[in-house]
Design a protein that fits this description.
heterodimer; A: about 850 residues; alpha+beta; nine-stranded mixed sheet; eight-stranded mixed sheet; 31 strands; B: about 130 residues; alpha/beta; five-stranded parallel sheet; globular
Chain lengths: ~850, ~130
């Protein structure tokens, strides 16, 4: 009786657990894979849209986000069906990831989560609304252009709101401004009232602590500047807000209040009134930067004041701190410098400088007299002039507008960028005299209507073709990067490139993402680019018309600099980039990391990755897996290769006419598996030097039989390929390492990918790590994006045509054999390169196909 | 005729569409006026004949269909290109019998609209 009850109970329990049968599991798995594919394409699409080649509106963004959320919901459902609801937690994760995305779409920037203080090197998050214009730009100069900017932190707009709230000021200020706007109150009185009430306020203790923490960490003396939202952007508040130099750490909270108050100076109020933005609630972020004790300082204008020198930029320089030039307080040296390398100085005018501004002891500034003998000396050297010119060009290229840049040179002679804002030009400069369309027609065209746009824009420079890693070091600043493939390692020269042109690659790939991040115009998939474009030739790329001109098309470059919108700065693009930051980055790379959990999913991509990995793991969860195999047709591959491989056919890869349960590779109509097997079957791959380990033991583990009924299967020697005509999912346990390959290979390059993961080995971690490095080395030559962590390597490759995927699968096949026991022989780091060479020597045909 | 620059009107209530299209078409040698308010656009076509009108369909107030009907009535030789989101694709197809030259779905590539505009130009110039 007791036994019966027990049986009934366990039967009920197993029903409740609901182990789904194998075919159903794979149906869910395939649905999951399809949704995975669609979701990845959707993310790629969104990335592509951020490149400026498309015109889209907010509706497109909200539709796409909705679609992505639906796909993820379905994926979570599929995974839970496969895994008997063990991942129900993911529903909450989905909400956590998408709530802020929805908030962004509704225009509510998630300020409630924003910090009071951020460092200039913290993640940008595309939020000038938080940092204000000036600080946001400087953060870009540091993080994107990597130019020297004094270290510093920003007291954010969130802190501004906190300050108002703590001192109960928001409503009062609003009422005062209203009264002035409706004519009930005078400007001066309004301004004084508001400024006085802000200055009389108290910095909230939590904010005070945050500020002090940063202020005492680094410098002894700070520059405290305004960074209002909109400042240095479309609206120029130049000089309207307060900037305080040489502020001691303890004085920062008071200086902070003074800068906040300047938001309501009479000038600032009437400027906002004139510009029609008085109705919008202003906010003030405050930038605190380490003080540069400058021996010289000044301004660069990347557009020349002299109309006869359109190819020059202007540099003004004076002794001491920046106020002399910026506020026009004294005489400055003036230089006209050619914008193009080698930046020849076409005119220099050294003036007589009587005074300089210097830091006063105990804080603040003072004006001092310059000794007679120094008055007529140039403030800076020729080398500094040329360095500044180079920076000016890079800044203009990035911000896509003529720039006005404040700079300083410290006592040691090092130069610094203090700020960079759009240069306000006179209206007459806006309209080029000649029609740009006619001007372009006079330049020879090298390429027309070819390629896909990864990032839109116009870029000009000398061609530099990159063929190998060594070429990268020689890449000149401002050259046009030309390459055959969009290999991930090209990323390091992107910030210095004026434009990018490649023969292969997709607008959804890694290099395209990097090009967008650094705003470099990029045209990919241009047939024969490497032969049409020769080293040193000066060219101009115009992605708007997918045209490459011979020579520098000055009129076009000028037109671009003056046109009404920089698309990267438009609200829609910024919104898209903010959305992408919550959608596209992949943080969960290593499935063995402790963060590889639903909680660890920070982006939509993380979620997709997590679900995909767990779904695959579910299939590989052997005890329940074997249970599921009952009644399912599993084929055994008959081959000379010492890998005992079982095949599960998802649909129609193996003809129904085949009898028995054994097949040869020709009978498996799965091109990805066949390609891999071609590589695995190369005669030389299994004959590395004899290893002094128990080879027989190894071979026996490799060839041990596997019983289709599940009897005698053990987790350590299970090799399974799940296939159909365009898909391969392969799990290999060869000896002591574990290898997973997941491939999609069909006619549409956008669908295609290879995912390769390899971990483990028989030796100590050092040697196993060497093998991972060796794999990374070889795979990156085949343009994989490879990341290693200890003995784990994960390599990915996206969007290549079928033929190229096929070729790389052969390489992977050869590598599987070649590296299988190689860790034992990697006795020193030097062996890595030796075996890389050995691999390419043996596979000279593969090696040749690299070039 | 061939030397005369073609006049193009762009109407879309999403300012980004106008901001992006205008310079792209100007560079091709067209004269471009942009509108984000359909009432203003309607007023404009009362006294100006455009060679090509590029318009969104769904807008507050006067919608794209009303505008294109009026434009065709005023100036039958004006070619109208409709831009629209996927949701209104069916309506867009219907617009064909109102003599619309072509329609294009958002989001679109600059090169796609340039291609449609070139075809419309060819048709106009061949008259």
């Amino acid at each position: 009786m007791w036994q019966l009850a027990k049986n009934l109970f366990s039967a009920a329990l197993s029903r409740k657990k609901g182990v789904v049968d194998f075919r159903q599991v794979f149906e869910h798995f395939q649905t999951l894979l399809r949704n995975h594919q669609t979701a990845m394409e959707l993310i790629a699409d969104l990335g592509e849209k951020s490149g400026g080649d498309y015109i889209f509106d907010r509706k497109y963004l909200s539709d796409s986000v909705q679609q992505l959320q639906d796909l993820l919901l379905h994926m979570i459902k599929s995974l839970n069906l496969i895994a008997s609801n063990r991942y129900a937690e993911l529903y909450a994760t989905l909400d956590n990831v998408f709530l802020p995305i929805e908030a962004e779409l509704k225009g509510r920037i998630a300020l409630q989560d924003a910090p009071y203080v951020v460092h200039l090197t913290d993640d940008l998050f595309e939020a000038p609304e938080l940092l204000g214009g000036k600080a946001h730009r400087l953060a870009q100069v540091i993080q994107r252009l990597r130019l020297p900017v004094p270290n510093g932190f920003v007291v954010t707009n969130k802190a501004y709101h906190r300050y108002l709230e703590y001192n109960d000021l928001a409503d009062k200020i609003h009422a005062w401004v209203e009264a002035w706007a409706s004519g009930e109150e005078e400007l001066e009185r309004t301004s004084v009232q508001i400024r006085y009430s802000i200055l009389a306020g108290i910095v909230p203790p939590d904010l005070f602590r945050e500020i002090q923490k940063h202020a005492h960490k680094a410098a002894n003396s700070w520059a405290v500047r305004s960074s209002a939202h909109g400042e240095d952007g479309e609206l120029s508040f130049a000089g309207l807000h307060e900037s305080l130099l040489n502020v001691l750490p303890d004085q920062i909270p008071e200086a902070y209040k003074r800068v906040l108050a300047s938001l309501y100076s009479a000038e600032s109020l009437s400027y906002r009134h004139q510009m029609g933005v008085l109705g919008e609630e202003p906010a003030m972020a405050v930038l605190c930067q380490e003080m540069i004790q400058s021996r010289a300082s000044g301004v660069i204008q990347t557009s020349c004041v002299d109309p006869l020198r359109p190819d020059c930029l202007t540099i003004y320089a004076s002794f001491g701190l920046g106020r002399t030039v910026v506020e026009g307080k004294g005489e400055a040296d003036t230089y006209f410098v050619e914008k193009y390398p080698p930046h020849a100085i076409t005119m220099s005018l050294v003036s007589e400088k009587e005074y300089e501004v210097t830091s006063a002891v105990g804080g603040g500034e003072e004006e001092t007299h310059i000794p007679q003998r120094r008055q007529n000396e140039p403030a800076i050297s020729e080398a500094t002039i040329q360095l500044l010119a180079k920076w000016g060009v890079a800044l203009e290229r990035y911000f896509k507008r003529p720039q006005e840049i404040e700079w300083a040179e410290d006592e040691k002679g090092a130069a610094w960028i203090l700020q960079s804002r759009d240069l306000v030009l006179s209206k007459s400069a806006d309209r080029p005299e000649q029609d740009v369309c006619d001007s372009c027609a006079s330049y020879p065209v090298l390429v027309r209507d070819k390629g896909v746009v990864a990032h839109a824009g116009v870029g000009s420079g000398k061609v530099f073709v990159i063929q190998s890693n060594e070429d990268m070091k020689k890449f000149p600043e401002g050259a046009v990067l030309v390459a055959k493939y969009t290999a991930p390692w090209l990323a390091q020269v992107v910030p210095s490139a004026a434009a990018i042109i490649t023969e292969r690659g997709s607008a959804a790939g890694h290099l395209a993402t990097i090009a967008r991040e650094f705003r470099v115009p990029a045209l990919l998939n241009v047939d024969d680019a490497c032969s049409i474009l020769t080293n040193g030739t000066e060219i101009t790329l115009d992605t708007h018309h997918r045209t490459i001109y011979l020579g520098r098309v000055k009129e076009l470059i000028q037109y671009e600099l003056l046109q009404s919108t920089v698309f990267e700065e438009s609200a829609e693009f910024r919104l898209l980039r903010r959305l992408l930051k919550r959608i596209a980055p992949l943080h969960l790379v290593d499935p063995h990391s402790p963060d590889f959990t639903p909680k660890g999913c920070k982006s939509a991509h993380d979620l997709i990755r997590f679900i995909h990995e767990k779904a695959i793991q579910e299939l590989m969860d052997l005890p329940s897996f074997v249970h599921r195999f009952q009644g399912v047709k599993i084929w055994t591959l008959v081959s000379e290769v010492p890998i005992d491989l079982k095949i599960f056919d998802l649909d129609d890869a193996i003809s129904p006419d085949v009898e028995g349960d054994k097949v040869v590779i020709d009978q498996v109509n799965s091109p990805p598996l066949q390609a891999l097997w071609t590589g695995v079957s190369r005669r030389d791959v299994w004959s590395t030097e004899p290893v002094d380990l128990d080879l027989r033991g190894l071979m026996s583990s490799l060839t041990r039989n596997w019983d289709a009924q599940g009897q005698g299967a053990s987790a350590s020697n299970f090799n399974l390929a799940v296939v159909n005509k365009s898909y391969l999912n392969l799990h290999l346990r060869l000896g002591y390492h574990f290898n997973l390959i997941d491939v999609m290979m069909d006619e549409e390059p956008r669908h295609n990918y290879i995912y390769f993961r390899f971990v483990g080995g028989v030796t100590d971690i050092t040697r196993r790590s060497r093998r991972a490095q060796l794999l990374e080395n070889i795979l990156s030559r085949y343009h994989f994006n490879a990341v290693t962590k200890g003995d784990l390597i994960v390599a990915r490759l996206l969007h290549l045509p079928k033929k190229e995927i096929e070729h790389r699968l052969q390489v992977l096949g050869a590598l599987i054999g070649f590296t299988r026991q190689l860790d034992i022989q990697l006795r020193s780091d030097d062996d890595i390169e030796r075996f890389v060479q050995e691999f390419f020597n043996r596979h000279d045909q593969l090696a040749r196909s690299l070039s | 005729m061939t030397d005369k620059r073609l006049r193009i009107m762009i109407l879309d209530d999403e300012p980004i569409v106008c901001k992006r299209l205008k310079p792209a078409l100007e560079k091709h040698g067209y004269d471009v006026d942009t509108f984000t308010d359909s009432t203003e656009a309607m007023n404009q076509i009362q006294n100006t004949a455009y060679d090509i009108i590029i318009t969104d369909l769904k807008m507050k107030g006067i919608d794209g269909m009303q505008l294109l009907t009026e434009a065709k009535k005023k100036s039958p030789t004006t070619e109208v290109i409709v831009i629209t989101g996927f949701a209104t694709m069916e309506t867009a197809r219907e617009s064909f019998h109102k003599g619309v030259f072509d329609f294009i779905a958002k989001p679109f590539k600059l090169s796609e609209i340039q291609e449609v505009v070139s075809r419309a130009e060819a048709k106009i110039r061949s008259r």
